[in-house]
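explain this:
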Amino acid sequence: MSFLRRRKATERPHAEPHDIDTETDDVHDKKKTKPRPKLRPKRWSCVDTCYWLIGCIFSAWWFLLFLFSAMPASFPQYVTEAITGPLPDPPGVKLKKEGLTAMHPVVFVPGIVTGGLELWEGHQCAEGLFRKRLWGGTFGELYKRPLCWAEHMSLDNETGLDPSGIRVRPVSGLVAADYFAPGYFVWAVLIANLARIGYEEKTMYMAAYDWRLSFQNTEVRDQTLSRIKSNIELLVATNGGNKVVVIPHSMGVLYFLHFMKWVEAPAPMGGGGGSDWCAKHIKAVMNIGAPFLGVPKAVAGLFSIEAKDIAVARAFAPGVLDKDVFGLQTLRHMMRMTRTWDSTMSMIPKGGDTIWGSLDWSPEGYFNCSAKRLKNNDINTADKNGNGSLESTKRVNYGRIISFGKDIAEIHSHEIERVDFRMLIVLQGAAKGNNLTNATKCDVWTEYQEMGIEGVKSVADYKVYTAGSILDLLRYVAPKLMARGDAHFSYGIADNLDDPKYDHYKYWSNPLETKLPNAPDMEIYTMYGVGVPTERAYVYKLTPAAECYIPFQIDTSAEGGSEGSCLKGGVFSVDGDETVPVLSSGFMCAKGWRGKTRFNPSGIRTYIREYDHAPPANLLEGRGTQSGAHVDIMGNFALIEDIIRVAAGATGEDLGGDRVYSDIFKWSEKINLQL
């Protein structure tokens, strides 16, 4: 190899000085000859090192997958049973032995990021990628051509639709979201267990959609809502008139809530199905990991492109994410891309301070993060009154979703001196675009580049933000994003649901500003994990000024100081499924929709089914069969069994009604909401 390199170097007509050295011929050679080039050993650049590391990681990943696939199918089970004892039958096998068979057609509605997206039209850098997955699968193009990938995954920052010359569309069929990546299941385990009792593709439908778009824009661009309506009607018609069981997950819960209003609303804004469409076509909606009232995690993502894990990585290796390493300004590229995804705004917390708490109050104010509970998802041993966890003696100000400084997060509100950033803009003229350090050298545009230094400082000087003031904050730091968002989503509480303004689609995904369908025989379930620390509030700090920087970041040095503290690494945690707090998943079925209320005028029956998290006993169990984590719960045997029983004809009462481990009923009673 070295000989070939030397030969190539000598054959180049124009060798560069830094590539070769010259040395004279042997002193015994009397003839004068031209200097002979000598190739220096090539030094690896940062980019070379980066791609080498990525290659090693992916090679190791594929090697492990190969080894696992090469094993006899019974080997992992044999080893696991040798360690932990006999494994229970999968739910599909168990219920088939009981005689259950397929009855109601099943519709899956995937959440944000779990559905595959493929390229149909792109720019020159994406040559050869026609109908290849840009999202999902191996994510090969992410590390092969990352800037091109980010460009094609972004939407137009003005319209929220396709950029010029780019068309990325959702993958169709069950394969759209059965696996997120090789070996990482989403819907695959549930699909396989349903197949055990007789389900097949003609009785199952994946309602895939482009999860980047606002919900109404999926209809404007792709007619996705119309396709879902037609497919549900076809499933009912070809399965003996049996109504469908709909299973949305994560953001798919909000998407289907929007669909139920759209399908009954008159055209052209709605689907024109009439006020009894849901009653005629839907048996039950079984919501998994439902962010009904939003998630604080969405605020951190929009504000600083962070969550707990990214904040820790950013603190541990700040150069990798904060600076222009490997030629990539990683966080800036991610922020520019994700701020074009209008769907993310659907998960901003809804209900303001009434639901999420104020400066000195929150429903979960005394939650004990070290409390342990019985882990048993197979029988209904949970307290149906919602007294599943212990209380701590120290109040946590969860209502302060963002606090600038640990002390601000803990002291009484009377001690906080705040300067209203909205007034400061007017009084001091802290207009966007003034004095941001070296903004002209930035290759990646973000809206923070238009904020003056005084504007950045004014955000921190306001000190603390609750759910009621978060919207003003986001409108200030991300005006283009929120201008689009305000046209498609709403976050308040309706005073009068009969007001004609609530007929507009922007309210349809907010359960506090819309009514459930007139379908008294329908059932609504909320099914979610508990016992996993879940992000609820954040301690922030200003980032030291630098070129092209994001000026705010989670302060990972902020710690609670005790074993049972809910503050770790700048993040206050509460009970939930790692992504969605219990309050968001459970409140509507615990109180807002329980019985006949103004939000549920026909009295649709609601059920809460909680699944207490238990991690896998060993590595061979994979992601476990009792997990309560937001995505891993899709392989939870107890959850799958509940779904199969309902699909086979059971009701919520047949399942045993509510099963609650958390304090959701107690917290719900603390919320003063007109019903």
